[in-house]
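Figure-free illustration: sequence to structure, shown twice.
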Amino acid sequence: RRKLRRGTTSCWECKRRKTKCHFEQGNPAVCESCQRRGCKCVLQDVDEKTSTGQRARNRNLGAQMNYLETVVDQLVHRPARSSTQGANCETGSEETAAAHEKENSAARTAPRQQNTGRHPSEPFNSRRRLLPKLDKAPAKEPRTPANDNPRIANQPLQPLASQKYSKQLHAQPIDLARSLFQLAICLQQSDRFPETSKLWLNHSNRDVADQYFEAATRYVTSQDSIVVSYEGIETLMLEGLYHVSCGRLQLAWVVFRRALGIAHLVGLHIPQRRRQGKQQSSANGPSSMCLATLWFRLVFMDRYLSLVLDLPMSVLDDSFMDDFVTQAPFEKLERAQAKLTSRIIFRNQQLRLGQRGGDPVYDHYKETKDIDYLLTQATRALPLEWWVFPPTQDAQSIDELRDMIAKIVHQLHHYNFVLLLHIPYILPGPEGRFNNSMQDYSNSKFAAVAAARELLGRSIVPVGPNRVSFSTRGIVLKVVLSALTLLVVHLDSHRLGRENPLGHQRPGDLATAERAIQSLETMGQKFDDKLCHSAARALKRLSALEATAA
């Protein structure tokens, strides 16, 4: 072996890449380059061939993946439990905890093995680097499926020793990617809640979520041969939802387009094929996915993102309306919204063409009123009490809280849909912008203002236990758009003078907009969110202009 020169501190990977090797002050084990690339960092004074044996690494990675999938089960598939049952089951089995501790200890203290002529698997090591090390939680109060508590903050999450929740160490890559995406979404959306801070991770929830997401995308969903299946489509949808939650709508649109392409390859666009039955899901065991519902969700997200981004939609077929699927009332409303979304996208295209001398026969505002009427008719399928904002602070169980949050999300989407329908008409355009410049668009202004009020009333909720906050970028954008609508409409209404029909609503609307601005400032300061900072500054300037015009 070649003698090492005195003073050499770089690792083998940086030497091969001929890059500068620099170690952070708080992390002397891995250099910055290897940490960024997810590579194994071994100093040159250590022979790579004498590194930890492959078997010990397999055990450690298997234990980590088992822990990750256990956390997914606890966060996603957690059953509701009463306080009495939780109190009766607080004392777990010491034998179970001891057995699990012994298993983890064996995985951690596996003896080093000499590699006889074979180099370690670098792809395996780089994948393992992407998964952060998990701190071992105290085992003095073991948790089992029987003593699962409804509140995440009550006890730190610990690995379950029950065989029911134990996963195969050699699971399919698509199943592992799905679990990582589910966990990443949970961590990303719970990053701003203090009760989820005791997950026994070395980094913040957001950083860990990004690492899990990167591992799943780099090694699984980026491989076309792995995702060409029903399970692959579902996993790609989870990837797209993570992008939506982070505010990367363009990337989400690309991912859903890719999922739609795969859906066409496997025949989901054919009504007879997707209505034949259900495709069993290998990850969730007894649960299954409905192919008709899977196709509808793909079309729904593609059309919604195309509407928001002002892009053409991919699927023009509305055959999903005829799929025989057991539907709740709000699901019927969703299908009606998906069908009407295609008409809004076509109307927006005609509006752009009209500004450049497009079809003079097309009446865009008549189409808008027709869409609004059909949407109003679709909402009548829901009972009146469904539209009441649910008191999330009074939720008694996880199941009840989940149902309340689902209702709020559906309400937010509906009012955002109404706002997107009428928002082109909140300001009078220049002469000739629309075919009929003398058309009265007051109905659209009133509808947009009403939708903005409902959106802000459901979005601006204090952050805390059993509260819904705009922790995802999608809701932040809804808040900004709603506050902008209120301020712009009232600014434009001042030109009517004494005949301003919104004069009595102005104080309440401005107070709501000011509350939204304060919430954006708070979120920006607390979480160093640049979008919230810039949006709050822009809305403040617009509010000052409105006050001057008044």
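We now fold a second protein in the same way, so the two outputs can be compared directly.
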Amino acid sequence: MSFSPVQKLSVGTGIALAVLAIVGLTTFLGIRQMIGSEQAVANTNAAIAKLDRVVTRTLDAENAQRGYISTGAESFLEGLDEAQNDVEYALDSLRTLTEDDPEQRRNLDQLGPLISVRFRDVRAAVATRRRAGRDAAEKLLSSETAVRSRGGAGPIASRMRDEEMRVLGDRMRTMTTTGRSARRLILIGTLFSLVLALIAVQPARPSVARRLTERMSRALLLSPELQITQAESARHAGDRLRRLEQIVHALQVPLSAEEVAQLLLQKGAPPLVASLGVVVQRRGDGYLVLRSLGDAVPGLRDGAMLAADLVAPIAQAEQAAEPVVIESATERAKLFPSLGSFSGTGTSDGAFVAAPLTASDGVHGVLLLAFAAQRTFGDDERAYLATLGRLGGLALARVGS
């Protein structure tokens, strides 16, 4: 069966368009999966942080109990209610974050009652100290099960944390694989469509090609724009994944705290396009600037102690173990009215984010990224910052151990 030049052109063009449509649909699904994976990574990081919060704040309550029993000073009990409220809030958040994981829900069902019993024991020992004295309270204390003992809540929390770390690794690998597959499919599909189009137009007379081109140009106008948008989204997601892989690889060798800070700024910060990047770490009552990149005021330069008028967002991020995100100058002035300037020229006094560098035993530093103007931070960027903070915190924890 022979085909006319117009028929050959139509068939070839139709196949090429079909291939482009398949590539576009598959790429769209891949990008949507990557975005979903980034959100899942953020949820996993949040679950890890909440588990650490449960153990840490329960330990705070135990320390307050021991201090009060030993000295009888009421000041030790000031934070007891706050610690219990923090733990209950963290447990409620964990129930939401683990609702799709039956095994973690079973672990959480065991963890919650143990934590409740532990706080009940803490308050019972405090009441015994008030009523019967130190000796009776210490006797009661010796019979209690501490949070990190074999029969306490600590082992269950550790088991849940290990499972979340495993899930985090699986999701990171899935994101990497999906990104690579999307890039490969875009390239192969585009090349194949180009070859088909070139073959199809060969037998067409110039006049036919000209008429068909004029008729089809309007219909095809949106396809390249859609393809560019999808390719750009895949490229940004792929760049963040590559940088996280590079950071993980670099952290496999021992590094100093300053080298870890340099790695976070040089490899981790560029995708967010900040005008200033700083990594600080607590030293006594203040904060030491480990590394800074950009036009910074003297109080934000390498080796300097953080200026007092710049401490507020850093301290809040460290205390809450959650990022402090400011998206505009108006929000900045409202929440931190006394905050000083990050740069001498005003090029970094718009939006900013202070991301805690966290590990299982707490916060080991803060990453500050500042911007010249206001901007919003999407869910994918927040997930990326949370992962970057987890990697940096684990590395700094190893330095301090």
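Summary for the second example: The first strand starts at residue 276 and ends at 283.
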